Amino acid sequence: MDLEAEDQVEEVHQDDGNSMRPEKARTWVEIDTEALKHNFNMLSRGLAPHVLKMSVVKSNAYGHGMVSCARVFRDAGTDFFAVDSFEEALELREGGLAQPILVLGYTPVHYFNQASLLGISLTISNRESLNDASILSLFLKVHIKIDTGLHRQGFQETDRDFVFSILKKSPHLMIEGVYTHLAAAETPRYKKHTQAQITLFSSWVSDFKSRGYTPLAHVSASAASMLYKHMHFDMVRFGIALYGLWPSLETKARARGVRLIPALSWKAVVSEVKNVPRGEPVGYDLTQKTKRNSLLAVVPVGYWHGYPRNLSSVGEVLIKGKKAKVFGRVSMDMMVVDVTGNKGVRQGSEVVLIGGVGKKSVSAYDVATKADTINYEIVTRINPFIPRVYS
Predict the structure, then answer these.
(1) Around 247, how many Cα atoms within 13 Å sit in the side-chain half-sphere?
(2) Contact 135, 156 (CB under 8 A)
(3) Total Cβ atoms within 10 A of residue 264
(4) Judging by DSSP bridges, how do beta strands 27-31 and 388-390 pair with one another?
(5) Burial class (CB in 10 A: 0-12, 13-18, 19+), 256
(6) H helices, E strands: number in the chain
(7) How many Cα atoms sit within 13 Å of 237 on the Cβ side?
């Protein structure tokens, strides 16, 4: 699987007093802000002085809490923020973030006036949006996105003449940036495809400059920013690596000297403990039976909270320094784990869903591997209503 394990989780001492637990919380997420700063500084250290740093805080900062993380990256020296939606950009502005913000995703035209007033930069990636921006005659900061081979957003080569013809008659549009997104920069076997994307992108950048535009050119996300200095252009977009998670196995293997520290731990409490005799089915659909007289603990976390249902009977958590396997189905709001032989487990005992206890850990990569997905999905799907605690 194209994933990577995080670095060794720093030692965390078990404390059933739950010193980081918000009052009355059954489940919560802990964010290590020093780890966030470390990762930002680690990613920044290899950049040339002229290269700007963009911190990607979309999707609730990959599950870590958008506004709080953005404040950490602001204080660490970021030059730009990137979000997915205009609503996220508004949330940053309302949270006191004055730095430049780029909306990476599609922005409906009814937000254009507000974007102009707030100085929020928009991605323009198709003919319809470019026409709308041209007709409205608003002063807008825009980043033109080029499709160089990922084939999601972006103008294609056949759109080149159209783009420049519209821009020529739209002096109210400030071409702040031009960018693309690489399909497989983290994977060595697709090096030719990556280089072809860069070559095509470079031709667009040259075309902009030959026509008198001076846009910020950017292409590198986390993997390319660590692996390919020649792809840094004018700005790099730090994404999942900011949070201490690796884009792929290959990236970590090749990014020599880079040490990332996972910033997120997800915890809960045991809500109930019970003895269940051998041979008893547990949970919905009776999918698993006890093979011995068992001690089972109920954890008030389920797929509503973002814990994948396909971890039923295979997921693992940590309780009192020992791993406990998910027993039976993960339900909407709770799950059962087997704590047989783990003395002292009681109501209120701390459960680590992601993170470490002593020298043992359950990483986002571990969870993703068992759920047959990627670490990106695991952390971004943690319910935003779950309280985040920053230290």
Answers:
(1) 24
(2) no
(3) 26
(4) parallel
(5) exposed
(6) 12, 20
(7) 23
- 325 close to 338: Cβ distance less than 8 angstroms: yes
Q: How far apart are CA 57 and CA 62, in angstroms?
A: 7
pLDDT at 390 over 70: yes
The tokens describing 246, both together, are: 């690796």
Q: Give the pairing type, strands 322-326 and 316-319.
A: antiparallel
Structure tokens at 112: 């254009």
CA distance 46 to 35: 18
Torsion of CA 262, 55, 57, 63, to 10 degrees: 0
User: Which of 70-74, 227-231, 341-345 is the most confident on average?
Assistant: 70-74
Q: How is 235-287 classified by DSSP, letter by letter?
A: EEEE-GGGGT--S-HHHHHHSTT------EEEEEE--EEEEE-TT-EESGGG-
Amino acid at residue number 60 = N
Alpha-carbon gap, residue 113 to 109, rounded angstroms: 8
Write the CA distances from 128 to 29, 135, 285, integer angstroms: 41, 11, 50
Q: Which residues are tagged catalytic?
A: 58, 284
Is the pLDDT at 9 greater than 70? The verdict is no
Phi, psi of 278 (to 5 degrees): -60, 140
Average pLDDT over residues 238-265: 95
**Angle between helix 191-210 and 160-168 (nearest 10):** 30
With 0-12 CB in 10 A as exposed, 13-18 as middle and 19+ as buried, what is 133? buried
Rounded to the nearest 5°, which phi and psi values hold at 113?
A: -65, -45
What SS3 class is residue 390?
strand
User: What's the token pair of residue 339?
Assistant: 């704590």
Q: What is the reported pTM? A: 0.92
Gap between the Cα atoms of 42 and 36, Å rounded: 10
